[in-house]
Amino acid sequence: MPPQLINQIILKLDLNARFKSIQFALKFAKNPIPGMLANFERKGPTFNTYLGGIQPSLMTKDPEIIRHVLQKNHRNYIKTPMIFEKLRQFLGNGLLTSEGAYWLQQRRLIQPGFHRQRLTALVEIMDQVIKEADDKLQASIQKGAPVDVYQMMMHLAFGIVSRSLFSTEVAADKLDFLSYSLTTIQAFLVRQIRQPFLNPWFKLSGQLKKHIDLSKAADEIILDLIRRRREATGDYDDLLQMLLEARYEDTGEGMTDQQLLEEVNIIMTAGHETSANALSWIFYLLAQHPEIVHRLQKELAMVLGDRPLSFADLPQLVYTSQVIEEGMRLYPPAWVTDRMAIADDEVNGVSIPKDYMAVLVIYALHHDPKYWPEPESFNPDRFDPEKKKQQVPYTYLPFGGGPRLCIGNNFAMMEMQMVLAYFLRKYGLSLVLGQQVEMLPLVTLRPKNGIQIYFQKKHI
Questions:
Q1: Per residue in 7-48, pLDDT tens?
Q2: What is this structure's pTM?
Q3: Which stretch of DSSP H or E encloses residue 358?
Q4: Which of 52, 59, 60, 58 is closest to 18 using CA atoms?
Q5: Which secondary structure element, helix H or strand E, spans residue 50, and what is its range?
Q6: Sign of the C-alpha dihedral computed for residues 341, 345, 347 and 351 taken in this order
C-alpha cells in the first residue's frame, strides 16, 4: 500500500478518534464517571483517548501503571500544564501547583507543620468549630426537619481550616466571601478543563476576567491577614504562624507575603472541600447502615466513656478510622488525578509517549472487583489492620501517592475522626427517603443536590 494512502487512513482514524472524544467531552462535562467506567468495561483497564477532543491521553485504573507514574518514575511526569496553568492563574504557585526544585523546597519547608504531633494544638480549635456547627443544627432538630449534610459539612470544614489557619477572629463576611470565591472559581475551572474548546469564548465574553478579579479580591483579604499577623506581638498556635516561622535551611529566611498567600490558598482550597465531601458521603453511608453506626458508637463509648475526646484518643478509634477509609474508597474526594509525560516511557508493555497525559482514575480503581470483592458494598472491615496488610499496593489512593502524597492527610483524618466522634456520640441518623442522591465529579467528588439526613438525639 502506498505510504500516502497509509497516512490518509491514519489521519482519518485519528480525526475519527478526536470526533468521538469531542462527543464524549460533552457528556464528560456533566458527569464523566459513567462514561469512564463504560470505557474501562469495553476497552480494558488502560486505553488511549483525546481529553476534551484535544489532548492525547492514556486513561488507566491499572495500579501498576499508576504506581509507575506517581512513584517509581515520577520524575518523568509533571502536573498537566493544560490543567495546572489554569489552577496557578487563580491559586498561585503553591504546593499543589508547583513543580521541580521549587516544589521540593516548599514541601520540605512546610511538611513538619503537618506532622501528627504538631496537630495537637489544633484539637481545641477543631472542637470549638464542631460545637458551633452543632449549635446551628439544634434548630433543625427541634423542628424535626432534615439537614443537608453536604452544606453542613462544607460550612464546618471551611470553619475548621480557616480557624486552623487564622486562630484570631476573622470577620464573618470576609470568611463568607472567601468560601464563595473558592466555590465559584472551582466551578469555572472545571468548565475550562473539561471543555477547553470554550476557552476563547470565556476570554472574549469577560468570564475569565470576572473570575480573575474575584480571585484577586480574595487574595487581598488573605494578604491583609498575613500583614496584620506579621505586625502582631501575641502568641499564636495556628497554621499561619507555623508558615510564618518556617525557615529555609540554606538561607535561614522565611517566606515572602506572596509565597505565604499562595500556600494559604492551597491549604484553604484543598483542606476544606476534600474533607467536606468525604464526610458528606460517610454520613450518607452511615444513615443507610444502622448496624455500622451502632458498632461505631460502641467503640466511642468504650474508648471515651463520657469524657471529651483528646488527641491521644485518636489512635484508639480504630473502627472509626475504618469507616472513614471505606467511605473514601467508595467516594474518593480526589476521584481522578493526572500527569504529563516529559519523555517517552513504557510500563507493563504500555507505551506513554512524550506529552501524553496519564489520567489516573482513582474512582474506577477503588471500585474494581479485581481488588475489592463486592466493590459497591459499604464494608469497613475491609480496612481491618490485618486485612490492610494484604492490600495490593496502589489500589487505595484517597490522598494520592508517591512523593506528592497529600501533605494534609493527617490533618484530614484527625478532622474526620473528631467530627464523626462528636456527632455520633449524640445522634442517630436516618436518610430522607425518596431523594435522588447523585455524584457531581468536579475537581472533587461532590453530591450533586446535597444529602438530606435526619439527626435524632440518642435516648440515654
A1: 444 444 455 555 555 555 555 556 789 999 999 999 999 999
A2: 0.90
A3: strand 357-360
A4: 52
A5: strand 46-51
A6: positive
